[in-house]
Amino acid sequence: MSIVISSFAWVPPFAQGYVKDLRPRWALNEAGLDYSVHILGDGEADSAAYRAWQPFGQVPAYRDDAVTLFESGAILLHIAGKSPALAPRDAQEAALMQAWMFSALNAIEPKVDNLILPGVFHAGEAWVDGFRGPAEALIDLRLKSLSGWLDGRDWLTGRFSVADIVMATVLRGLQEEPVLQRHPRVAAYLDRCLARPGFERALAAQLATFAANAPAA
Predict the structure, then answer these.
(1) Cα→Cα distances 40→16, 22, 60, Å
(2) What's the whole-number mean pLDDT along residues 129-147?
(3) Angle between helix 184-194 and 197-212 (nearest 10)
(4) Rounded to an integer, what distance in angstroms lies between the CA atom of residue 137 and that of residue 124?
(5) How far, in whole angstroms, is CA 164 from its chain's centroid?
(6) Would you say domain 4-85+198-210 falls under CATH 2.60.40.10?
(7) Which residues does 124 contact at the CB level (< 8 Å), separation at least 6?
(8) What Cα–Cα distance (Å) separates residue 134 from each residue in 120, 170, 178?
(9) Which residues does 56 contact at the CB level (< 8 Å), separation at least 6?
């Protein structure tokens, strides 16, 4: 099977290690599936050919011998179906895996972005400080609920799954935020996820791509 995922050649340092091709890289490492990387050339993200693969000109996009896909959640569900290590064992596990994946993407990730991104893209603007309080209160509620679910559980669905990959990559944005430390069960869960060799290999591979394509000083 020939699997290809797309990656930007380089991104600014603040984004390195967080670009979402990290998710399929991690899943493919957990699945034990080989893959190659299509590095987007200068201007290629806006080309008609790439937009036919990834309509928004973002990464990741995915293809194998049978399908082409875009959006990281959809890609991870597809990869899970190809791997005994990640495929759900029964209908209930499959349902929970999908539910928690969509929860990470829809219920938690937007709240994390609302807390983090204004300070990245609007640093110094007067409204940012006032926005942080309400944004932190909203993510605090989500983390409280997630902590309740994780009571007595190592993973979201009983064993490690692609739902944990998505959730962990979402929660990583909070690693430097005090709100995460107020929920030690969630912080410990994130530590478990990030200690997996599959994550470490995926992160190293993404960073190697950016290092190899860094602009000349």
Answers:
(1) 16, 15, 11
(2) 94
(3) 70
(4) 21
(5) 10
(6) no
(7) none
(8) 17, 19, 14
(9) 70
Domain 91-196 maps to which CATH number in 3.40.50.880, 1.20.1050.10, 1.20.58.220, 3.40.190.290? Answer: 1.20.1050.10
Give the list of residues 6+ apart from residue 123 with CB closer than 8 angstroms, or none. Answer: none
Angle at CA of residue 159, ends 34 and 138, nearest 5°: 100
State the DSSP code for 182.
Answer: T
Burial class (CB in 10 A: 0-12, 13-18, 19+), 112: buried
pLDDT tens for 55-101 read 999 999 999 999 999 999 999 999 999 999 999 999 999 999 999 99
Cis upstream peptide for 60 (omega within 30°): yes
